[in-house]
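Standup notes
- HV: blocked on the assembly model, inputs below
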Amino acid sequence: MNPIQYTIVPKNPAAHLFEVTLTVAAPDPAGQRFMLPVWIPGSYMIREFARNIVTLQAFNAAGRKIAIEKVDKHAWQAAPHDGPITLRYEVYGWDMSVRAAHLDDTVGFFNGTSVFLAVEGQADAPCVVDIQAPQGAAYRNWRVATALPEARGTMRYSFGAYQAQNYDELIDHPVTLGEFALGSFSAHGVKHEIVISGRVVGLDMNRLAVDLKRVCEAQIALFEPRTKKAPVDRYVFMTVAVSDGYGGLEHRASTALICNRGDLPVVGRAEMTDGYRTYLGLCSHEYFHTWNVKRIKPAAFAPYDLSQENYTSLLWLFEGFTSYYDDLMLVRSGLISPSDYFSLVGKTIGGVLRSSGRLKQTVAESSFDAWVKYYRADENSPNAIVSYYQKGSLVALAFDLSIRAQTGNRKSLDDVMRLLWQRYGRDFYNGKLRGIEESDVEALFAEATGADLRKLFREGVHGTRDLPLDALFEPFGVALAPEPATNGTAGKPSLGARVRGGADCVLAVVHDGSAAQKAGLSAGDVLVAIDGLRVTGSNLDALLARYLPGAKVEVHAFRRDELRRTEVKLDAPEVTRYTLTASDGRGPGKQWRERWLKG
Ligand SMILES: [Zn+2]
């Protein structure tokens, strides 16, 4: 099969325009169809990337125009003709996230799903992409970072030709263009690269390399304890550092990340800041996906259908379990202490138990509806949905503790992950291309561990009953207790609403059944006074700390431009996090706990 030839040029960084050409040697003589994905794998929302295609024209081999028309929101149809066809189109890129494409005079970034049209009927054809440098002296130090293999003659990190075996591989390798800091390390013999773009002062790349190596080696050893064989030949961590941003997207041999520049480690400062721990947790999360969702996949993603939603009820397994392991691997690799780990778990438990959506939606339903609910969260989401990330990670924790308790700590969730890997993941890109059916999950867990997990599946995955975490922690010598919100105002009563900070006190979320809701307050209302004293986004806690739970206060608030007055009977202090306390008591508790946290 002739390769499909793409070129991409950061043509006009000031206008944020890439120019892409695409040549098909043997198009459908009856009229070739082309389409752009409507979503990017890993981010379960219809994004309609084709809306950023500004102009598009088609030409024959002689350079004469061929008629081409739009047939729906993301597809084009060329008129019948003989011989090769070339498309030339412009793509607008002004999305500083990891999900789309961005171009300005400081950095370029793109996912193939935003810029490379698929050639209908030729998804299996090899692809060659010529990545060209922008014109002008200002760009002479720009380089290319991607895990896409270089074609012959192209040096690593340079502009030139890159290649992919098929369209699926082409779009699974994001590309960063620009000036960037570069680091590398070897994890169990495989080269891992670190690319940091954006302005970062005093970056401690050595520390980053040492720390990430530990996380990566721990994960490789988890899936392949005997051979320590990594799932890739090469891996690239690609980060754009910005003033305020957080996110990551997994790919088969790389990840695209965005973080606060302040989260990255600084030369000469050895402390583990919350920001750096968060960043390492994000790297750990995306790296874990190299196995869990990029190779071990739900059947619905094997293969992906990029023209519409791909429904699966298993995101709790692919995102939730990955969220469980991301921080667990930090403690197992010694980057954070067990007490730091417990504090992260306590925060997650608080996050889940705080919202009544958990009583209305199961994690399986949340997975299925991710496209219209989790990814399109609004002010009512905490009352209506449960996060398959947060609760999914607690479901993973519950499975892990339950399996360990039932098997005397001889089996664990690690055994489930390994069996999933052996059966579905290891050979996914070696022609096996099979995902796990939803109906096979429960049997696989039982096969891997011998534990009876039916109740957890029934109540934790397919039910809305709260997980029995107290009981599950007990054999591990861990006690769970609610920790009321503090920040200097311990025991303060609550409105039962989440507030957006700032000059105005805007209610972002009003929890079901809360004092605020009973008093008729709604998300979007701007509180202006409590008992006649002015309230802002920053002094609400201090004002409420003057009252006891159950006290009645007069609240003035604007809804749109109408002033309202209401009386609020204040709720008990809100529990936003839980404390996990490890005891050194007798019995197997301490030993079991250490085994769990050491892997
Ligand atoms: Zn994820």
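- HV (later): unblocked. DSSP finds 17 helices and 28 strands in the chain. The two ends are 47 Å apart (CA to CA).
- Next: hand off to the docking folks.
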